Amino acid sequence: MELGATLTQHVLSQQRLHPQARGEFSGLLTQIGVAAKIISSQVRRAGLLPILGASGTVNTHGEVVQKLDEVANRTVIECLIRSGHVAAMASEEEDEYVEVPEARRGAYIVVFDPLDGSSNIDVNISIGTIFAVYRQASGGEVTRRDFLRPGREACAAGYVIYGSSTMFVYSTGHGVHGFTLDPSAGEFFLSHADIKIPNQASCLSLNESNSPYWEPWVGRFVGEMKARNDEDKRRVSSRHVGSLVADFHRNLMYGGVFLYPGDRRSPRGKLRLIYEAAPLAFIAAQAGGAASDGAQDILDIVPDELHQRTPLVIGNAAEVRLAEEFARGRGEDGMVSATTAVERGSA
Known about the structure:
alpha+beta, Fructose-1,6-Bisphosphatase, Chain A, domain 1, D-Maltodextrin-Binding Protein, domain 2, 8-stranded mixed sheet, 5-stranded mixed sheet, 29% helix
């Protein structure tokens, strides 16, 4: 089988689409790929090395930190610092942003979730790394304002999924491209060029055990999705892993919508805007999809704090807009007509 371009080759070819690019941006994305290879190697040996289970510490969100969380976080930070292309970075696992020593400082800001879905590590379910890259706003002293920016300002975003194979998926604003790691060559090769979300949403991804706490619109929206199934055909299937990067990746490839709405227990949602929702919203938009908090596009939200949480509806654009309609109070009779759904490009 003929192999596609390597990640490095593809990043360099994409550089030509950015008139202001000077190679630093390309070098940064390549170094994120290096971090992904290191993390992938650790994940593959997780049952053989003493890196499974909890580390005994709790992060800024009150969550128990897994040993592999710490390994992944340290790996990304060290690779970014050594790259010489980063001014500062913010991680979901760190209380505050991390500044790079001046001697190694570059022009970019990176935000990342080093190991999304880490509660699934011990049961061998797909997990991943999510990231976004911004150009430093001021060009001088690093401040919190460099991080509190809408996702639409990102130069690039992507994720790595560690599953049956390791895939690196990214966009610089010119389409979405996926690369599969060949362990024997130690390199990512282009395997999924110009990814687009299929028009039909065939997957519905959410934790229905939270239904007692939902706002009424969520149940109505879920009911509308399920009502597309009839005696002729099941058009929508429930698929929920509980690892955001895995659920998003499946829906990106097969078509679907993922929901983690705010509810009575967590009105502001549970997912992190900067590290999870905004980077994946950037990818979704480039693949022809959309992302919303139920009221506005995720990419338009200006964060107030580093670890801000948000509700999230992400996937096929038609279904995201339909969810917004329910969230705004329309469809109070409980359903939106099947005709409307078809007109929106859904099954």
